[in-house]
Design brief:
The complex is a heterodimer of chains A (about 230) and B (about 300).
Chain A: E1 2-10, E2 16-25, E3 30-34, H1 41-48, E4 56-61, E5 64-65, H2 74-79, E6 81-84, H3 96-105, H4 111-124, H5 140-152, E7 158-162, H6 170-185, E8 189-193, H7 197-202, E9 206-211, E10 214-219
Parallel strand pairs in A: 3-8, 3-9, 6-7, 7-8
Antiparallel strand pairs in A: 1-2, 1-4, 4-5, 9-10
Chain B: H1 3-19, H2 21-57, E1 61-65, H3 71-83, E2 87-93, H4 95-106, E3 125-130, H5 136-144, E4 149-153, H6 158-197, H7 200-208, H8 213-252, H9 264-291
Antiparallel strand pairs in B: 1-3, 1-4, 2-3
Helix pairs in contact in B: 1-8, 2-6, 2-8, 2-9, 6-9, 8-9
The structure holds adenosine-5'-triphosphate and magnesium ion.
Chain lengths: ~230, ~300
């Protein structure tokens, strides 16, 4: 469960990215976060795994109060949250396989299990044939799928995805969406920021619309609601 | 930490040495140059110390007994000396032995002593050495209190000045060694800082996928240790060969006979060990402090 109570975020340069966000996302929910560019969607997501800290307000993830969380405990919070970053954040000197395996090495999984599970998720994102390739030899969409594979590999209880279909063609996008839906069906909470109108309007889920740092709409089985 | 995690860190640390080619070269060079300087100074300092310790060990206390002391009283003095703390050796020199010594010392002028033999004016004495030559004045003062001790001689005045001098030389040496070690640390940690700065993105990503600080630190730690180790090898080889050559030169050149240099072993073994340990410690420490600010993600 994710809960935010009157959360404000002002970046050091004075930009007010979020203004008084109060929201509750239950375990197992699937949520789209929509809104114009610069509205604060990425900031909203970054607060959940403590990449950014709120200027004001309280955030709870899986019952943990992030403000009270000690520095040393942050890695353990993040291990329960899979994140697909908007800019992928792949390690350039590691192959696709190594990049995904890395997230499991961090939690000290046995190497046999790592090999097995990495193979599995690479098949899931249809990248088995690129396992030994380096990120800069991949297309944008392929890099995105590596990022998704890495976010999934540890079977997190929460999956945060910042525009996971941003660079994909419609067919691959739907592949990814069905993947996310399946993961969601297995009980993982999914929060996904997106600009993809077709997906939001077709695969109906809860929609939270953010504009100018405020939640302006929050509907079950909502619509995208913006012109693209 | 699990064993396989440690093996991973080890593998990563070694791999990084290769991956960061010229950065590795820069760090190793910085370590090598500073450790070489430190090594030269260490060898110099240890030889000076050896020389001073040799001179210091020559310092002894001559304890003259009153001429009327009876054999059992002489015995009592000896017991008292042996019970005195801080005393390494006590050697009895009777006045006859003293005369023999004197004759030997005078060599062909020994006839000057003719006629004195029957009426030996010398006194029986004990030659006493202390464990710590620097304690000589204090020990001598205590010995003076023993009954039947007539006089105590140890080169008063001269000895104190000499010891002041050696103490100063040692302190200056120590300051130099510490100073050099710090310079080495600064140079090395700076180089490592550059290599780490080049990989700050990597560190950020590791943190975002849930790596603990120590999980990230270990490979860098091992890398730093290896850099220090590699950087120590070259100066050790050069110093070893160089010191060998120096000893050969001194041995062949008779005008340098007074230079009583330490033999290659164990001196070079000690210096090598010290350089390796210092190199590795500095490498690890350099990695640790240079990483600090990149771990705050
Ligand atoms: N690190 C930062 N420092 C300063 N300002 C920032 C930072 N990150 C984001 N901002 C600002 O905060 C506001 C919200 O940014 P955010 O990235 O959350 O938007 P977004 O909704 O994700 O946009 P997009 O759809 O383009 O990804 C923007 O005005 C942005 O310029
Ligand atoms: Mg964004």
């Amino acid at each position: 469960m994710i809960e935010m109570i009157d959360v404000w975020k002002t970046y050091p340069n004075g930009t007010h990215a979020l203004r008084g966000i109060t929201v509750r996302i239950k375990k197992g929910e699937f949520v789209y976060v929509v809104g114009p560019s610069g509205a604060g969607k990425s900031t909203f997501i970054k607060l959940m795994y403590r990449e950014e800290r709120p200027t004001k307000g309280q955030i709870f993830v899986n019952g943990i109060n992030l403000e009270a969380l000690r520095e040393r405990r942050i890695p353990y919070l993040r291990r329960n949250i899979g994140v697909v970053f908007q800019d992928f954040k792949l390690l350039p000197k590691l192959t696709v396989h190594e990049n995904v395996a890395f997230a499991m090495e961090v939690v000290e999984a046995p190497s046999k299990q790592i090999r097995q599970r990495v193979k599995e998720v690479l098949e899931l994102v249809k990248l088995s044939h690129k396992a030994d390739v380096y990120p800069d030899e991949l297309s944008g969409g392929e890099q995105q799928r590596v990022a998704i594979a890495r976010a999934l590999v540890n079977r997190p209880s929460v999956l945060l995805a910042d525009e996971p279909t941003g660079n994909l063609d419609p067919e691959t996008s739907w592949g990814i969406m069905h993947l996310l839906e399946e993961i969601n069906n297995r009980g993982t909470t999914v929060v996904m920021a997106t600009h993809n109108r077709e997906i939001v309007n077709t695969m109906r889920k809860r929609v939270i619309a953010i504009e100018n740092g405020e939640i302006v709409r929050d509907e079950q089985r909502g619509e995208y609601g913006y012109e693209t | 930490m699990k064993l396989r995690t440690f093996r991973r860190h080890l593998r990563e640390g070694v791999k990084n040495i290769g991956r960061n080619g010229w950065m590795t070269f820069a760090s190793v060079s910085a370590v090598a140059v500073t450790l070489f300087l430190l090594g030269v100074f260490l060898i110099l300092a240890m030889n000076v110390n050896h020389f001073m310790a040799h001179v210091e060990s020559q310092v002894e206390i001559k304890v003259y007994l009153t001429p009327d002391a009876k054999p059992e009283q002489v015995k009592a003095v000896e017991t008292a000396l042996r019970n005195q703390s801080g005393i390494k050796s006590v050697v009895y020199v009777s006045k006859d032995q003293g005369m023999e010594e004197l004759k030997k010392r005078l060599g062909d002028k020994a006839e000057l002593l003719e006629g004195l033999e029957k009426q030996n004016p010398l006194q029986d004495r004990f030659d006493v050495k202390t464990y710590d030559p620097h304690q000589t004045p204090q020990v001598a003062e205590k010995i003076r209190q023993i009954p039947h001790v007539d006089e105590v001689q140890y080169g008063k005045g001269w000895v104190e000045k000499f010891f002041d001098f050696t103490r100063m030389v040692r302190n200056v040496g120590l300051v130099f060694i510490v100073g050099l070690a710090f310079t080495a640390m600064f140079l090395i940690s700076n180089t490592i800082k550059i290599t780490i700065f080049a990989r700050r993105r990597e560190i950020e990503i590791m943190k975002l996928v849930g790596a603990t600080n120590w999980f990230i630190r270990w490979p860098f730690f091992i890398e730093g240790m290896l850099l220090g180790f590699l950087g120590a090898l070259l100066p050790i080889a050069v110093l070893w060969v160089g010191y060998h050559a120096l000893l050969d030169m001194v041995r062949q050149d008779l005008s340098l006979f007074f230079l009583d240099l330490l033999p290659v072993t164990p001196l070079m073994a000690q210096v090598s060990l010290l350089l390796v340990v210092i190199g590795m410690l500095i490498g690890m420490w350099g990695s640790l402090i240079s990483m600090r600010r990149f771990l705050k993600v």
